[in-house]
Amino acid sequence: MFNIILFGPPGSGKGTQAQNLIDKYELVHLSTGDMLRAEMKEGTELGLKAKELIENGQLVPDEVVIGMIGNQLSANENARGIIFDGFPRTIPQAEALDQLLESRNSSIAAVLFLDVNEEELTRRIIERGKTSGRADDQDESIVKTRVQEYTNKTAPVANYYAPAGKLHKIPGMGDIDEVFVLLQEKMDELMATQA
Ligand code: B4P
């Protein structure tokens, strides 16, 4: 399996580019954000708990997302590879993912880090908020909280993967097509070295 993590702050293009990449490389897309929003829409117990945290810009507890990813890995054992989008977002999530993959004789091939500055992140998220209906996209102070959560809890995850040479920084300030070209170049390079 060829497993990739799309990493970066909120609004850096993870969900957007994951969609482009799965179409081109025939990989399975696992987005914890999408899974949580589906639970919220269905009004499940988990969804109701997650809603309050998400709408305040905070991360949901590790055990919730780790459980969801574990279930999805079991459901996709024959996949060619997986793109993890928005997961892991904390060091305990990264450690759990390593264990889940190791127990399936698999591992993370690379972490693609979309590098975008805070001003642009805020601009993109507030712009999406005009049509997305997402409460966490509509208020600048909530976007600030999301960026703070990222800085405090998620940014250190990059250092978890860097020593093994798995972290690859991709300039993410260009438009969607420009960033996709850079991602494809990196994906093709990585896949060629794996083959
Ligand atoms: P996510 O769904 O992962 O949300 P996100 O970070 O806002 O999305 P993303 O970064 O993928 O958006 P994109 O830039 O593609 O998480 C939402 C919430 O769920 C979190 O805050 C947290 O509470 C919870 N959660 C999820 N996973 C969790 C976990 N593992 N642990 C704990 N909690 C978790 O898109 C943004 C906008 O920018 C779009 O409108 C897009 O069109 C636009 N855009 C993208 N690229 C662009 C570009 N190059 N130029 C111009 N616009 C661009």
Q: Which SSEs are present, and which pair or pack?
A:
Layout: E1 3-7, H1 14-25, E2 28-31, H2 32-42, H3 45-55, H4 62-75, E3 82-85, H5 91-102, E4 108-115, H6 118-132, H7 140-154, H8 156-161, E5 167-171, H9 176-194
Parallel strand pairs: 1-3, 1-4, 2-3, 4-5
The structure holds BIS(adenosine)-5'-tetraphosphate.
Describe the structure.
With 195 residues, the protein is of the alpha/beta class. The chain contains nine helices and five strands, in the order E-H-E-H-H-H-E-H-E-H-H-H-E-H. It has helices spanning 14-25, 32-42, 45-55, 62-75, 91-102, 118-132, 140-154, 156-161, 176-194, and strands at residues 3-7, 28-31, 82-85, 108-115, 167-171. Strands 2-3-1-4-5 form a five-stranded parallel sheet. The longest helix has 19 residues, at 176-194. The chain starts with a strand and ends with a helix. Bound molecules: BIS(adenosine)-5'-tetraphosphate (B4P). BIS(adenosine)-5'-tetraphosphate is lined by residues 10-16, 32-33, 36, 53-54, 58-60, 65, 86-87, 89, 93, 124-125, 128, 136, 146, 174-176, 179.
